[in-house]
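Deviations from the work plan: none for this task. Representative record:
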Amino acid sequence: DGGITQSPKYLFRKEGQNVTLSCEQNLNHDAMYWYRQDPGQGLRLIYYSQIVNDFQKGDIAEGYSVSREKKESFPLTVTSAQKNPTAFYLCASSKLPRLGPETQYFGPGTRLLVL
Amino acid sequence: AQKITQTQPGMFVQEKEAVTLDCTYDTSDPSYGLFWYKQPSSGEMIFLIYQGSYDQQNATEGRYSLNFQKARKSANLVISASQLGDSAMYFCAMREGLSGNKLVFGAGTILRVKS
């Protein structure tokens, strides 16, 4: 079945450590996105990519980095510069161009906790 | 400025009754799309319904309908015949432009269905 997978489901980070969240899609979508969700709040865009080897900052990119070496994969690294990384991270993908009701499809999420 | 406002942090509804979840938006772009998503406690985001700014009729998808009042910039979600499985967080989101890639989310409304 086509879909988006994220791993791990739970991730623990120590102070000063970089961690990488995985996102893979087999929907043949061009665009991929990373969102952060804090408790009781909506989703905020971290980074997005419309094509391999290209990506743009979203609203809260500081302390995060991404790469898009393959169409299917869009890993997110939470660096030590991100001082408050505890959150739920959602990856999404969509066709391009996004016309009309074309929506983003979301993965199951990764919950990141700081030790 | 807040682009999507969901003023109801939480709502209760009796099973089998209808419920309306409020959403107001702010944009100067005449072309936009409005989306509603459901997020169960497991965390995944499930697309429910879409309304385009040029759509003449209110969108409907099964038990979900969208009360679109363009002049008031509101796009309220109506769930008819509520079921226990409808208990979840609901998010309103907007995409600006005919083919924009970015979604802006509201803070969400928690819905609890009582038996």
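Chain A touches chain B at residues 31, 40-45, 48, 50, 58, 88, 90, 92, 94, 96-101, 103-109, 111 (CB under 8 Å).
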